[in-house]
Amino acid sequence: MLLIKIDTSIGKGIGECSALGDPYYSPEYLSVSDFVLKDFLLPHIITLPFPTTLHTILTFFNKLKGYSQAKAAVEMALLDLLTKSQNISLLSFLTHGQPTKTTIPAGMTIGISDDIQNTISAIGDALSKGYRRIKCKIYPAYDMNLVKAIFSAYPNETNLEIFLDANESYSLDKHDLDTLISIGNFDERIIAIEQPIPRDQILYLTQLKKNIGCHLLLDESVSDLLQIATIGELQLGSGIVIKPSRLGGVIPSLAALDLAHQYRLQTSLGGMYEAGIARAVSLAMASLETITLGSDIGPSQNYYLQDITSPHLLRNGYLEIPNTTGLGVRLIDESIFDSKHIEFIKEQKSPFECIYPAHHFFHK
Prior knowledge:
Enolase-like, domain 1; 2 domains; four-stranded antiparallel sheet; TIM Barrel; seven-stranded parallel sheet
C-alpha cells in the first residue's frame, strides 16, 4: 500500500492507496499509482490558488484519465482534513449529520483450498465468531461439490448467507452456464454469484440472469459510471459491487450508488487489501442504506499481523463504524512519514504541503 499525508493551513489529512503490487487484478498497480501521485496528482494540488475547494480538485481529477486508486488516496486525505477542520466525522459527512448505525455485520471471505473440508471448517469457525455473511471463492471443478458440502454440513443454519465469488473464472459455453444456473438455484441461502465471467464479456450474461435464482453481482466489471449504466440499461446483472478505491473515492462511489438505485440494482460494498485508514472509509460507506446486500469488510486481524491504526475489531460478528472527527482513526506511529518521503512544497502561501512515503506492511 501507499500512504499520503496532505498538510494544509486548516489541518492535516492522511489517505491510503489500496492498489495491489501487480497488474493481474487491475491495470493500475502500486508502481503506477506511485508514479501518478508523484508526477501528476500531488504536484497539481500545490499549484492551485488559495483558497481551493474539494470540487476544484475533483474537477481536475476528472481530466486525468484512469488511475482511480491514486485519486481515491488523495480524496481520502482531503476528506480526512476537511471533516476534521469542521469537527465532524466522515460518517456524519456521508449521512448529512444523521448517522443511523453504529455497527455493521462483518463479512468473511474464504479462499480456494486443496481440500473442501478446510473450507467447511473455516465456515464453521466463522459462524462460531458471529459471522453470517460468508463469501467463498469458486472456479470450474471447484463449485458444485463445494456447494453441496456446505449445505450438507450446515443444514439448519437459517441465518447463513453465502456469496460465491467466481473472479471471472467461467466461460460462456453451455456446460459452464448450466453449472452456474444449477449452483444459483441450489439453495435459497445462496444470496449471489459474483462476476462469473470475464469483465469484457458481460454483454452475454442475459441468459444466465434470466435463469439463475440468486442475485448475479458484477464486480470487476464495475469501475465507472458508464459501466454501471450499461449493466442497468441492458439488465446484465441484478446488482453490482461498489469498491470506493476502484471508483476513485467516496464521492464517485456516492454517484455510483445513486445510479445503481435509478436502475434498481442491488449493491454490495467490496473491499481490497485495506489497512486501517481505507478500512475506516469502507466501514462508513458500508453503513449507508443504499448498500442493500451488505459488505465484505472484515476485521483488521483477518488481513494484517499489525494494522497501521488501532485495529478494527470483530465483536459478535459486527464491526464498529468509526465516528470521531475525520476518518475516525489515527496512525499508531506517524513517524513512518519521516523515514522515506518526497516533499512537494511551494511557497508559504501554497494551499497544500504534501508528504508522500511509500510504506509497505506485511499481510497475514
